[in-house]
Amino acid sequence: MEGTDPVNKKLAAALSGGAVLVVAVSGCSSSGGEEGPDPKLVSWAKTVCDAVPGPNAKIRSANAEIAAIATDSNLPPKNAQKTYADAFQDMADGYKALADALDTAGAPPGVDGGAKLQKDAAKNLAGLATSYADLKKKVDGLDTKDQGKFARGLKEVAAQSKEIGKQSDSGTQALKRLEQEDVKKAMAKQPSCKVAASASASAPAPATSG
């Protein structure tokens, strides 16, 4: 019979980049430069940053749950199914909330091409939310009565998660393009972004497949 433990580790490894996007959203350190950004842009950054900590925490927690399950070789399929389903739902909710935050904030004022940068970043986040919601549905449909079938189903989930990894990379780049120069300076002034960035940086490293 095919065990789920190696599959769990591979799945955790495939999903380990999930929190990277949040670091990109909230990765503000210092403002740099002598002149502060436009007050309107600072206000925009506050709208975005104040919405980050909650979704950020939800995504980090979901990643931690997936990493933890990778080390539990005795977890029954039914329990594993629930853990994955809950984690994927939390990720979907978290990324949707981040996308909504960017949509609500709109284009960053005074930034050349800001509207396109903002829309691209929001679109990527919304796409990630949809992909994790799809993974949740796939996990819900797995056969937990047969461990072999369940393990094979998880392999399909792991394969699908690799595509989400590519989405995450694309989303990270979109956010980095948005978070340049004055936008980065404006975000660096926001305590909520600093807190979220610190929390992401201190998150435990995800499990990897051996």
Could you characterize the architecture of this molecule?
By secondary structure, the chain is mainly alpha-helical. 73% of the residues lie in helices and 0% in strands. The chain has 9 helices and no strands. The chain has helices spanning 5-14, 20-26, 39-50, 53-69, 77-105, 114-140, 147-178, 181-188, 191-201. Helix 1 (5-14) packs antiparallel against helix 4 (53-69), helix 2 (20-26) runs parallel beside helix 7 and helix 3 crosses helix 8 (181-188). It is elongated. The chain starts with a helix and ends in a 9-residue tail after the last helix. Mean pLDDT is 79; it is low at 201-210.
Can you summarize this structure?
With 210 residues, this protein is mainly alpha-helical.
Instruction: Note the overall shape.
Output: elongated
**Backbone structural class:** mainly alpha
Q: What is the arithmetic mean of pLDDT?
A: 79
Task: Figure out the total of helices.
Answer: 9
Features:
single chain; 210 residues; mainly alpha; elongated
Give the SSE map.
Layout: H1 5-14, H2 20-26, H3 39-50, H4 53-69, H5 77-105, H6 114-140, H7 147-178, H8 181-188, H9 191-201
